[in-house]
Amino acid sequence: MAILPVLTFPDDVLRRPCSEAEPGTGQIRELADNMIETMYAAPGIGLAAPQVGLSIRMVVVDVTAVIGEPEPHVFLNPAIARSEGTITFEEGCLSLPELSVEIDRAQKIEVHFQDLDGNRKSLEAEDLLAVAIQHEIDHLEGRLILDYTSTVRRDMYRRMARKMRAQGL
Ligand code: NI
Question: 37 an active-site residue?
Answer without folding.
Answer: no
